TrEMBL record:
Its EC number is 2.5.1.145. PANTHER family: PHOSPHATIDYLGLYCEROL--PROLIPOPROTEIN DIACYLGLYCERYL TRANSFERASE, PROLIPOPROTEIN DIACYLGLYCERYL TRANSFERASE. Belongs to the Lgt family. Coiled coil: none annotated. It holds the Pfam family LGT. This is Phosphatidylglycerol--prolipoprotein diacylglyceryl transferase. The chain crosses the membrane at residues 19-36, 56-76, 88-113, 175-193, 228-254. GO terms for molecular function: phosphatidylglycerol-prolipoprotein diacylglyceryl transferase activity. It is found in: Cell membrane.
């Protein structure tokens, strides 16, 4: 069993101001999107320009926060928040959903594509390879905070997370998330998008890849205590990932057929 590195969640204190590692991880994630996006623009991998990228990042921040929060409210605790609507805005209490944040980013992509006269899948194909490293940074923030821990296990790399309250060794599932949906998905998408592909297929690979990897990761992650296990022993994360995979497969096939007809 490995010792959990209990890192102070506050990275820097300047008087009454406290800068948290989790916030820094968000900044690191969006910074990686900026650097990778600029590289793709300079290499001629897209018609989008630097102004488009900067606007995408600015509005994507809003999409991630608003979509992530509303997704958590609607997918995870609808009854509670409908009874306590004022707490929907209590972001400092935590509670964000990746799938909700994804819907927020999709809304931003659709809006920017409409305003700048791009095809929306052209924008999404540009954005998709930029996202996994940002996801990895977020999962590192989860690990530093000692949250979203895994299920009880006896594997040699198990850790005791203080926040679990039971002192039992658990999977460091945040690191699994970081490795799979972060680094592995980045490598896959960067390789796939580096060659000319039918419009929309890069976005489809993101949906399929993330959905499959998240589904697998959930087998090691402790489900939310207020939800527990759902249909056939699945978790909410798995149920939300299935539509991603199905949509991605359909997109991949349809986009490939459309490209064949056009050629």
């Amino acid at each position: 069993m490995l010792a959990f590195p209990q890192i102070d969640p506050v990275a820097v204190r300047i008087g009454p101001l406290a800068v948290h590692w989790y916030g820094l991880m968000y900044l690191l994630g969006f910074a990686s999107v900026w650097f990778l996006g600029n590289w793709r623009i300079k290499m001629g991998k897209t018609r989008l320009n630097q102004k488009d990228l900067e606007d995408l990042i600015f509005y994507a921040v809003l999409g991630v926060v608003l979509g992530g929060r509303l997704g958590y409210v609607l997918f995870y605790k609808p009854a509670y928040y409908f009874s306590h609507p004022q707490e929907i805005f209590f972001l400092w209490q935590g509670g964000m959903s990746f799938h909700g944040g994804l819907l927020g980013v999709i809304a931003v992509i659709l809006l920017l594509a409409r305003l700048r006269k791009y095809r929306w899948m052209e924008v999404s194909d540009f954005v998709a390879p930029l996202c996994p490293l940002a996801l990895a940074a977020g999962r590192l923030g989860n690990f530093i905070n000692g949250e979203l821990w895994g299920r009880i296990t006896d594997v040699p790399w198990a850790m005791v997370f203080p926040g679990s309250g039971d002192g039992l060794p658990r999977h460091p599932s945040q690191l699994y998330n970081l490795s799979l949906e972060g680094i592995c998905l980045f490598v896959l998408l960067w390789w796939f998008s580096n060659k000319p592909r039918p419009l929309g297929q890069t976005s489809a690979v993101f949906l399929i890849g993330y959905g499959c990897l998240r589904f697998i990761e959930e087998f090691a992650r402790e489900p939310d205590d207020f939800l527990g296990f759902l249909v056939a022993g699945s978790t909410m994360g798995q149920l939300l990932s299935l539509p991603m995979v199905a949509t991605g497969i359909i997109m991949f096939i349809v986009c490939g057929r459309q490209a064949s007809k056009a050629s």
